[in-house]
């Protein structure tokens, strides 16, 4: 019997990556050119939070998901190459917010960079993988009145999502998840010297900052990083990118969400500026707002939602905001405002959900509950 030895070798990983990138390009170009007036879910903002939510939703092939992002592609050297990260600050990939001048800082106005690109902050940040402290999570759970936010619950989520490449530690560190995490490779000699210094003054040191240290009363360690072989591993790349060849996930860049649309108290969709035009797109099931700590409340306020006193107190920033003030005085919006400021509200279907990383989003300010995203 003649054996066929002419078995094609597996394509090189770089070829596979190039093929996949090409497939994504073709798929997303097609989906964007046939933008629909209606999707099941609309996720606004592709940053650390929105990327995870969009992916989890798109895992169900029977639903359509539209992911809207004001910024552009993350396929640029300053995002991909970890060493070039600084170049993003002040670039088109940074919203470029500045704090008001602070008299306690000699009148300086501190820059408050935020990512404006696929992946949001996770595409321009310093890549440190930093979990919250046990006490913070437990506090967050008690504030939210929802044990799903507590440390024990969140630790299990971390174990599921991590792909930890440091020394095995199954109690605290997960392997095989979507998020590649590495101990910082080749730290500068100053780093271990700092740890020696910390120990010498009684500060405990730890093998990394994301295990036991997050249960203790303080300590020091060398950081963990979301980078592999010098390349950034953003949350967007971990979650959304592998799904961008699918027909049910449309990722639209340079799409600015300007406001939510409503039918009475029910969020029905969004209004966006895209390709020089205003589009209204409906969400059959839910709209998810994951626009970051500044833009999420801003878009809510532009939609007439928020603390009424705040809406009236703030100066008119621009025409859109003045429109909001006018809307805030109208009967239906007044009701909407009262509704949105009622504490402990858990909306049912047709809702707008706010998602942000807990350290940056304070639900108490908007008095609007944020359901826990299951990762
Ligand atoms: C320079 C820098 C360094 C940092 N370093 C670290 C670090 O090392 N480790 C760490 O854990 N954290 C770090 N962070 C913080 C971390 O990146 C953020 O906490 C996190 O990304 C916030 O996630 P998010 O989903 O809430 O918002 P974002 O990641 O900011 O995502 C919001 C997304 O919504 C988009 N968007 C906003 N408004 C609109 C609109 N109207 N229409 C459409 N899209 C819109 C934005 O462009 C953005 O992509 C850093 C942040 C910065 C800026």
Write up this protein:
By secondary structure, the chain is an alpha/beta fold. Helix content is 32%, strand content 18%. The strands form four sheets. Strands 1, 2, 10, 11, 12, 13 and 14 form a seven-stranded mixed β-sheet that branches. It has a three-stranded mixed β-sheet with strand order 5-6-7. Strands 3-4 form a two-stranded antiparallel ribbon. It is globular and about 60 Å long. The site of flavin-adenine dinucleotide has 34 residues, from helix 2, helix 4, strand 11 and helix 9.
Q: Quick recap of the structure?
A:
It is built from 13 helices and 14 strands. The protein is α/β, with parallel strands linked by helices.
Write the layout of secondary structure elements.
Layout: H1 13-33, E1 38-44, H2 48-58, E2 65-68, H3 77-80, E3 97-98, E4 111-112, H4 121-124, H5 134-144, H6 151-161, E5 162-164, E6 179-183, H7 190-200, E7 224-225, E8 227-228, E9 231-232, H8 235-239, E10 249-252, E11 255-263, E12 266-274, E13 277-289, H9 292-302, H10 308-313, H11 319-328, H12 331-340, E14 352-354, H13 363-366
Parallel strand pairs: 1-2, 1-13, 2-10, 5-6, 13-14
Antiparallel strand pairs: 3-4, 6-7, 8-9, 11-12, 12-13
Bound molecules: flavin-adenine dinucleotide (FAD).
Order of helices and strands: HEHEHEEHHHEEHEEEHEEEEHHHHEH
Bound molecule kinds, no repeats: flavin-adenine dinucleotide
Helix content: 25-40%
Residue-averaged pLDDT? 85
Query: Largest sheet at a glance?
Result: 7 strands, mixed
User: Could you tell me the strand content as a percent range?
Assistant: 15-25%
Rg, nearest Å? 23 Å
Number of helical elements: 13
Low-confidence stretches: 1-8, 317-351, 356-375
Form type: globular
Distance between the termini: 52 Å
> What is the strand tally?
14
